[in-house]
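Why does this matter for the project? Reviewers at the last site visit asked to see concrete outputs rather than summary tables. In response, this paragraph embeds two records directly. Each consists of the residue sequence and, immediately after it, the corresponding structure tokens. Nothing has been edited or filtered.
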Amino acid sequence: MAVFRSGLLVLTAPLASLAPRLAPILTSAAQLVNRTLYVHLQPGMSLEGAAQPQSSPVQATFEVLDFITNFYNGAEVHTHLDVRILLTNIRTKNAFLPFLPSPVQNLAHPPEVVLTDFQTLDGSQYNPVKQQLERYATSCYSCSPQLSSVLLNPDYGPGELPVGSLDVPLPSTTRPSSPVARSPKQPVRGYRSGAVGGTFDRLHNAHKVLLSVACILAQEQLVVGVADKDLLKSKLLPELLQPYTERVEHLSEFLVDIKPSLTYDIIPLLDPYGPAGSDPSLEFLVVSEETCRGGMAVNRFRLENDLEELALYQIQLLKDRNHKENEEDKVSSSSFRQRMLGNLLRPPYERPELPSCLYVIGLTGISGSGKSSIAQRLKGLGAFVIDSDQLGHRAYAPGGPAYQPVVEAFGTDILHKDGTINRKVLGSRVFGNKKQLKILTDIMWPIMAKLTREELDQAVAEGKHVCVIDAAMLLEAGWQNMVHEVWTVVIPETEAVRRIVERDGLSEAAAQSRLQSQMNGQQLVDQSHVVLSTLWEPHITQRQVEKAWALLQKRIHKTPSGL
């Protein structure tokens, strides 16, 4: 069976009869398309007549909104598919412009195959019907010159509808703020201009529902606020968020694909109100169940500033069927970021100068991140661990390679009575003082690098295949040239401060000073191959480490040496 990168699914059956058939239709489509699946709604269209069918307007009703939500919800099973329901022909009851057959619409990923639920009487791949389907698809959208076509007949006999398929009401998913009860066939009102906001990290199906409803309501302009800067600080694993520009790029491509007739104003959202709180031209705001209170706060803010309230439309959250115990039960970017933990984020370094029989991991993280506990878990799985802190103790010890240079640089008042270096006193001298810290690191880092290389030789002598260098200052010291991969352990800075205070007996200010002398979590992650976190219960951390280790073993066995 041929598999295509992109496809167009033309749905011709009444929406109520499509509801129970969504799962088999999506399954059939997912077997043929492995990347982008565009969906075009044209209920009631026949492909068996002599005349070429034309695109006609579809009345936007709450049934249409519910169908779109349920379609995206059903697509959650097929994680490889980027589903995009096209909205060009869906019209609200008071559209401000007349419907005109639009010129061929360009799509970001021109379909290579067109699919349909339309059934011939005998259920066959009837050529005239397929030819009509291809002509219809190319009259509406830019398609591949070698366009193929398939009539889907999923999971039931030819020419038959599954039992109970007619007039099955779709679950209600969109609720206007008006207290008036809505009905499925009730037309949806259109507005000239409206707004929607979110983080839109790794654009997923719940985002697409929110955006699709907003695009249907808007007739001329849609303002899209994308959370940035301070609004990201409270997010889970903010270090793994896509950069603002990348989120906007994906968002823009999706919006222009689904409804190119709108003017999109995509702007950074820097406070909870954004333009929705101050723009007098806006008429509606689309929110989720989770952000509905924020929408009401926006309206209170508008009233306080003599602006009219916005019509609020609340969208139901999509349930995540595959969430784990430490993840939200809704479709969420936070869960997607959690699932990235332990995965390889970028290609490993090639290090021909390192021993060919040894694969070296540099393990780092801000102070208090829990990297030492990760190192011990990796040791339990078979890794040789080099503890840089222990090497530091060796270097600082009387007679050690760093002892005399450090005493000469910082004076004898950093010594205990027994002549050993008091590392707490030394730390208080350098943390928060860049000049003093540089004096210390200029002494220590070359010495530590030499000791680390000696330990790498010891790992080879013991027949180990994986070595982990546990070093808080791995990247600051420039030790990337000693490792194949950098693994970083992240936690929120507030949690790191709490742990440092509890573990080392320091004040919060001293803990903050220590963190400020290091790269922050974002800077570390930007140079990392694998990210882990100790934010949850120990067994969750263990599961992450085991996943990362298993994936590492697969990578190692694919290397030319095979270790």
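We now turn to the second protein, recorded in exactly the same manner.
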Amino acid sequence: MTGKYVIRVATGDSLLAGSTNLVQLWLVGEHGEADLGKLLRPLREKKTEVEIDIPFHLGRLLLVKLRKHKSLLNFDWFCKWITVQGPGNQGEVLFPCYSWIQDDRILSRSVSDDPQNLFKKYREQELEDRRKAYRWGSWKDGLILPLTTCPQLTSSVQVCDSWKDDDLFGYQFLNGANPMLLRRSTSLPARPPGMEELRTQLNKELQAGFLFEADYTLLDGVKPNIIIFKQQYVAAPLVMLKLQPDGRLLPMVIQLQPPRHGCPPPLLFLPSEPPMAWLLAKTWVRSSDFQLHQLQSHLLRGHLMAEVISVATMRSLPSLHPIYKLLIPHFRYTMEINILARNNLVSEYGIFDLVVSTGSGGHVDILQRATACLTYRSFCPPDDLADRGLLDVKSSLYGQDALRLWEIISRYVHGMVGLFYKSDKAVKQDSELQAWCREITETGLQGAQDRGFPLSLESLDQLCHIVTMCIFTCTGQHASAHLGQLDWYSWIPNGPCTMRKPPPISNAVTEKDIVDSLPDLHQARMQKTFIKFLGRRQPVMVALGQHKEKYFSGPGPQAVLQQFQEELAVMDREIKVRNAGLDLPYEYLQPSMVENSVTI
């Protein structure tokens, strides 16, 4: 029985998406496979349609295969999707692709999931190819693994007016560029603050639940940089703060270095100090915060963690796997930007070596220490905020927005996962899913099971939790650390990239001491330049949940995605209303500002 099939193919919209090479197609159905030959020459921004008679009926369509043949002039082709209209009453079937077709390889795309394991050989071949393209590398010992090489892909705040104020100093721990360090004190710090009167005051606030701390011990002992033959300096401060009834967070005491055995106790700086001494102490804290923000909160917890998730996904889940389809929109440009960062930002003779006090090796030491502290709970805002005692702090706008965004993403994930997994048993029996989980924890994170990351997935809830973590990490987590850089670090004294004099050992501080400690003119210009680059908004930005690629076919996933988009729109509007009544709007987790992946 002859059947007439109409095939439509859509090419990507970018300048180099089309190709003059011939493309061969195969259709696979329940009753057989048909080689349609070299039918297509997919030119840029063009939908190609072909009509062909097949001498037998394929039955229900299951799979389409593509192969771009080489020629003297060889151009890669970005295929968005393929639709096939079969004979009779068969409806049009959508095969999402959204992939580059390269070299002379065959690419397979299925119409749906694969409950009967009909496409096992295609899945295995795809993963074998991916594992060759996406290879785990090794950058520095003691760090989570990066990608070794990138596969071929064509692809304000007016801080200067208020930076001296204690209000703004405390506010940044809650809602600034780095809201990940603050925690409620559960005991007086191990680093004794000295002075009995001060200890009594701190203990009173501790008992009342108003005492908070920011501890930079991770920087202790880090070797400081030498820039153009001049020694730079690093401190490891401890800041104790009090939460006021009106929600303001105000510093009570700053200790710039931990105590040393056999040395006099470090100097304590109080708000009652001479103004220049107190200002210099706060400036040292801001410089230390710059180091941990850029390396721990932004690079490690945002960029490098997203890279682990994306590489593990590419190596373990074939393109027809529902979790692959759910996650792939959140990996756009992540590997490319991370390779640029390793080659230009934190590389030998890179930006950190040239201008930052922790460059020339200290930054690697910090990343190694921070990697050893990565916990699963710290990537999940409900757990992280509970562990840090911030759940009930209403002035933590980061905390409020992170919780709400997490809940919206979680509902979206539950909705999508529920379409493909109907029981805990289905999760446990999915060997590709279990391999993906192990690839993240054992390989990418270098054995992080002792820090709470799962080695296997035993239930639907556990699966939804880790997928929610993955999406939040690649979107909200990164946005909260990325979007504030221009606001908070463009005014150099509020976040100095380096300090040129050692921490003060007395409160006899002059304005000249502060100026001489801050970056010099060349360093300040360099900081302004790379912060402008790192903190810029993408000119063509895809906001969270707004990707146009349709990796899923059928009405179910589209309905779940639409509900996700509607919930994000409601949150966006409500944040705008809230921010209209604030002196300092908090926008970093406003859904329309959160990018769908780590791209910069």
